[in-house]
Amino acid sequence: MDTDCKSLLQELAQEYRFQIMAIEVMPDHIHLLIDASPQFCIPDMIKIMKGGIARKLFLLHPQMKKKLWGGHLWNPSYCVVTVSDRSREQIIHYIESQKEKEWSGPGRPPRNLERLNAYHRGMTDAGDIRV
């Protein structure tokens, strides 16, 4: 799943001419640092990314939709933060360190890790989905 999400996001970035500077796919969300021209409307970009990924993932892994609550991949919420040139490297480091922090490194332990792992095992047992 991780590889599919990253690949699909890179395809969308090429199609819509924005650059993904950092990305990490987490068990229940995705961290992205995007460089886009100012004419992009942020809510429209979010809809394009969420809709595009969901549509393509459901085509690649049709069994996945049956396991999701209401058949929806994404929650409608999102968080957007602007980044200056001075803080860009800090944000890239933050995003790139999220998997390590979530699973084995310092920081808060993941909530309901057993339940989350069981959920992903159920998703992968249905086919060849890899998280």
Q: Low-confidence parts, pLDDT < 50 over ≥5 residues? A: 105-109, 124-131
Percent range for β-strand residues: 5-15%
Q: Helix amount, in percent?
A: 40-55%
Mean pLDDT: 79
Radius of gyration from CA coordinates:
16 Å
Given the C-alpha coordinates, what overall shape results? globular
Give the terminus-to-terminus CA distance. Answer: 5 Å
Number of helices: 6
User: How are helices and strands ordered from N to C?
Assistant: HEEHHHHH
Total beta-strand segments: 2
**Spatial order of the strands in the main sheet?**
1-2
Largest sheet: 2 strands, antiparallel
Q: Structural class of the helices, strands and pairings? A: mainly alpha
Features:
131 residues, mainly alpha, two-stranded antiparallel sheet, 6 helices, globular, disordered C terminus
Which SSEs are present, and which pair or pack?
Elements: H1 2-16, E1 19-25, E2 30-35, H2 42-60, H3 62-67, H4 88-96, H5 98-103, H6 113-125
Helix pairs in contact: 1-2
What does this structure look like?
The chain has helices at residues 2-16, 42-60, 62-67, 88-96, 98-103, 113-125; strands spanning 19-25, 30-35. Helix 1 packs across helix 2. Strands 1-2 form a two-stranded antiparallel sheet. It is mainly alpha-helical and 131 residues long. The longest helix is centred in the middle third of the chain and has 19 residues, at 42-60. The chain is built from 6 helices and 2 strands; from the N terminus they run H-E-E-H-H-H-H-H. The chain is globular.
